[in-house]
Amino acid sequence: MKDFFLLLVILFFLCGTASAKEVNREKCASYINMYCTRCHTSGRICDGLKKNDEDGWRKIISEMAENDSDIDQDVQVTVHACLTSMPADDPVVCAKKSD
Ligand code: HEC
User: Which of 23, 30, 40, 52 for a ligand 1 pocket mutation test, highest count of atoms within 8 Å of Cβ?
Assistant: First the structure.
């Protein structure tokens, strides 16, 4: 019985983290195009996918936000969730490779 509850807790936890990580790709594309390609192309972000983990992106995104007040908390959290869930060659940021 104890094991059963433990299993339930683990399952609950797994589902919770899975749904927290679920991101809306259309929202990702529109946020990134709207806020992240004003100063440079998305090619720079594409390169970043290969180099950055969650912490790396957190640092970069807050640096970017320092230079553009439109990148508010909502944009930062959304873009962070997007970038940390993308494969290294995601077309949302890698379609146009030029910098
Ligand atoms: C206000 C202009 C501006 C906006 C808006 C902006 N960036 Fe940047 N970004 C820069 C500049 C300038 C650099 C180069 C800074 C450097 O090399 O230290 C840069 C560099 C980068 C890099 C490369 C960093 C590295 O160290 O490799 C990435 C990745 C990046 N930006 C992602 C983003 C993302 C994601 C967004 C949207 C949340 C964004 N940028 C929005 C100006 C901007």
Answer: 40
Tell me which residue has its CA closest to atom 20 in ligand 1. 44
Cα-Cα-Cα-Cα torsion 23, 27, 29, 30, nearest 10 degrees, comes to -160
Q: Whose CA is nearest to atom 24 of ligand 1?
A: 60
Query: For 44-96, what is each residue's pLDDT tens digit?
Result: 999 999 999 999 999 999 999 999 999 999 999 999 999 999 999 999 999 86
**18 Cα to the center of ligand 1, angstroms:** 28
d(CA 54, CA 81): 9
Given a contact cutoff of 8 angstroms between Cβ atoms, the answer to whether 42 and 96 are in contact is: yes
How far is it, in rounded angstroms, from Cα 5 to Cα 1? 7
Averaged pLDDT, 17-42: 86
- Assess contact for 34 and 26: CB atoms under 8 A: no
